[in-house]
Each structure stands twice: as structure tokens, then as C-alpha cells.
Amino acid sequence: MASLSVGIIGLPNAGKSTLFNALTHTKVQVASFPFTTVSPNVGMVSVPDDRLEKLARLIGSEEVTPATVELVDVAGLVRGAHKGEGLGNEFLSRIRGMDVLIEVVRCFQKDEVAHPEGKVDPVRDIQIIELELILSDLQILERRLTKLEKFVKSTPKENKDRLILLKKAKEHLEEGKSLRKVLSEQDCHKLSEGDFLTIKPLVYVPNVDEDDFASASPPLGELRQYLLGEGEEAMEICAELEEELGDLLPEERQEFLRELSVREGGLARLLKRTYELLDLITFFTITGGREVRAWPVRRGTTSLQAAGKVHSDMERGFIRAEVTSANELLEAGSFKTAKEEGKVRTEGKECRLQDGDVIHFIFSE
Ligand SMILES: Nc1nc2c(ncn2[C@@H]2O[C@H](COP(=O)(O)OP(=O)(O)OP(=O)(O)O)[C@@H](O)[C@H]2O)c(=O)[nH]1
Ligand SMILES: [Mg+2]
Q1: Ligand 1 atom nearest 34 alpha carbon
Q2: Ordered alpha helix ranges (H), 25-98
Q3: CATH of the domain at 108
Q4: pLDDT tens digits for range 134-175
């Protein structure tokens, strides 16, 4: 499976690189001027999973390898990006390859940090970006339509159906609607190879001030109303605070959070949600009783494909898979007991994995 990636998008100075740093525990350049990021920052992030920690404790494992996804922090987008304004073309072509988008929306004030539009107005910012993505999709769609229309008379029904779907998509875009909001899941799937930007799953991340946790600023209140009305997903985060928290020791962190009366786990929730939107599930392996590892795979993956993910030898020499669930294993206390209690199934190559499966592959070398 090619690596799945999550792209962080937003206007310049929204806090994208700050969020990237907080999520990846790295230190890419963050600054108060726009277009700090030019070439994209790429990092791998671990997806938090309680089951992994519990399994590690159960077997006294020292080595724990979490599931990871690729995170890409791209250049900021501005009005007119679809015509190449700012770093428009670079930005748009980069996010075309992403599987899920996180859009950072500036809600924090901070006068030293210039806003490309002059003042903080998160609803307007969301609309600017949505419009740019729509216009970019329209450009691609029109090119495709022209090509297809040229020879559709003499082509199979499949092409004709596609033409109808593309025309429907065009109408939606012309009405200013993102495709993910109006097309059925099935239609989105049919168009997914087209790299349309407004089809990609998207989570809004309002980047708020520390003070907003106590009482929301008027722009944040307005944004919440707007997103609710649009039925959009949002997860509020204070990117700067999250980044600072990453530098603290666990005890210091608890103290700090208590003082601010902030709940921990904003980043973890965001990562879990993007993981779901990538349509990933996790299976676990325990190697030599020492290493517990979480593996991300697409929903629908078979036991044979899973074996191949762990090692090509396992796929080649696959004999069978012994499968239990993380919860059953935790209850039983050991793989051996789980087996004695009849909680371990023997599966062939075609078994479709469930989220949380713990798998022991039997293979010939
Ligand atoms: N108060 C406050 N400031 C923030 C927050 N997040 C980012 N900033 C500041 O905003 C400025 C821009 O942050 P970046 O993370 O560089 O923004 P960016 O979206 O990556 O910007 P470009 O790469 O230029 O598109 C920096 O000065 C940050 O310190 C936040 O949550 N609160
Ligand atoms: Mg940046």
C-alpha cells in the first residue's frame, strides 16, 4: 500500500507549520511573516492507540511501534491561487496527491502576526479557500469534459455514464458547492482517481487563542455557528500551546494544563479522526514476545495482504493466520490462554481483517 497522506492546508500565517511541529514533534520554521513555508515539510506521525500500550504492558514489551501516517505541511494559499497567485500552483498540485485534508483556520488574534486579508475573520477565510479549491476543480473538470465529449459518441456506455457524472459535478461546482458535500459516496468514489480537491475528506481545525478555552472570541463564536450550519467537522486546537506542551515533561504538562483548565488530547483526537477518514484500520503483531507493533491497513485488507505488509516472506510462504482481538487477548492475559479458551481463530488467506485483530502468521520459510 502506498503511504497515505494527510495534508495541512490554510491561508498563510494560519499556524499550519506550528500544528505540524506539534503533531510530529519536530521544529520546522515558524514565523510571523506569510509564506514561511515554501517547499513542503513532510513528517510521519504516530497514531495514538490505547490498545497498543495495554498490549505492551501485558507482555512486558520494550519495543512498541505505533501505526503512522504521513503528514505534509504545504505552502499557504491565497485568493487567486487557481490562477497561480502566491504559491498557488505549487500548493494546489501538492495537495492533489493527499488523501485527507486538515484545514487550519486562524482564530487567534496576535497583532504581530500579519493576516493576509488584514483582519481575523475565520468564516471568510474558509470561504476563500473553498472557492479556490472549487475553481481549481472546475478547471480540471472542464479539460476532462472537453476531451471526453470529443469522442463519446463512439465509445462504450461506461464513458457516457462518466460524462453524465462529470456534468453533474460541474453544475455543483458552478453553484459553489464542494463535491464531498453534494455527491453520493459512490459518485465520489467513481471520481476519486480524478484528484479533485473538493472530493477529499476534510477536517477544519480552528486555531484558537489560549483564552478562547475559557470564553470564545466573537470570530470563533461566528465560526462555530457557521460550521454547524454547514454540517462540517471541526476540532479546535491552540497550535502554539500544543507545540509548547510537546516540549514539557509529563508532570510539568499536567500542572500546566490544570492552570489553564484545558483538556488534554486535542491532537490525539485529531489524529484518530484523520485515521478514520483515511479508512484505515489497525492490526497488531507480537514478534518473539518482545515487540508489539500496530500496522495501518485499508479496511477490507485480507490476511494474506496483511502478511505481505509485515514481510514479503510471510506472504510468499503463508500457511495460515491465528487471529484474536486485542480486547480478547487483554482479557485472557496471554496468547496461550486465549487459545485454550477458544478465542483464537485459524484463518486462511482470504479472511478480511477487523480493526484490533492480533495476528500470528504461520508461514514456511
Ligand atoms: N497566539 C498564537 N499564535 C500562533 C498560534 N499558532 C501559530 N501562531 C503564530 O503565528 C505565526 C505563523 O505561524 P506558522 O505556523 O508559521 O504559520 P503557517 O500557516 O505555517 O504560515 P506560512 O508557512 O507562512 O503559510 C507564528 O508567529 C506563530 O508563532 C496560536 O495558536 N496562537
Ligand atoms: Mg508554514
Answers
A1: 24
A2: 50-59, 88-96
A3: 3.40.50.300
A4: 999 998 899 888 888 887 777 777 778 888 999 999 999 999
